[in-house]
Structures are given as structure tokens and as C-alpha cells.
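Slide 14.
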Amino acid sequence: MKKIIFVCLGNICRSAMAEMMMRQLVSENGLDSEIDVQSRATSTYEIGSKPHPGAVDELKKHKINISDHHAQQISRQDFDEADVIIGMDHQNITDLKRMAPKNDVRKIHLAYQVLDQDKVIEDPWYDHKFDRTYHQLKEVLPKWLEILKDEKSDGN
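Slide 15: predicted structure.
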């Protein structure tokens, strides 16, 4: 089974939204038994917190299934088990690379890297533009799913 982990600072906005949106994409493609989707934080600020109400409201608008989510910090076990770790912005990438065991740094990618862009998934915690976050994630997640499906079919 392939494992993808989405990561942001607190794991209550961007990465939580990415997890729930990607889980729905995985399910719609009949890949629930082949791709595991998780999300984590780089910080301890929000550990145990539920997703931000703005994130939940935005996902509900788009009929995305809301899972029982509580923020967690990324762990050594996560680095070991993940096939792909997706950071939402440049600071997430810096923090992840600092935290990761040397052999796992290659698993870390910026979300927009999949579209050959250096853009970031902007943090709605500050400006409450959860619709922007939704649309940015909607742009990149199908491409990440394609990559996971291609790796699965290659036997990697």
C-alpha cells in the first residue's frame, strides 16, 4: 500500500483539507485498499485540535466527507512509512527536511512541484480564504493521485 502524508504548520487547515479531499479522490477511483492518506503538522501548536471551522465549512460546501481528524505532529515512524510527503509551503519543506532522517528527505515535496511550479498553498488561518485553499488543492491533488497510481502500476 502506498502512503501519502500532507503536512502544514498546524494540521488544522491546509493539510487536513488535503487529507480529506485526497481521501475522497482515492475512494472515487476505487483505490482505498491501495493508497493510505494521512496529514500531519510540523509544529506542536495545534496537537489534538479538530480542523479549523472554516476548513470544515469549505469542505462541506463541496460535499467532501469530513473525517474525525485531530492534529498530529509528524513522527519518525511517519517518515519511515510514507512513500510521499507533501509540504504546503517553503517553510514546511525546510522544517520537514530538518526533521527527516537523512534517507527520507527524498520523499519530501512541495505541493505545487507536481505541476512544475514553485507556488505555495497559502495558509487560510491568517486571512480565512478557505475557498482559495480548496481551489489550490483541487488543482494539485489529482496530479499527486496520478503519480501514486503510476508508481503502483510500475510495482514501485
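Speaker note: The chain has a mean pLDDT of 96.
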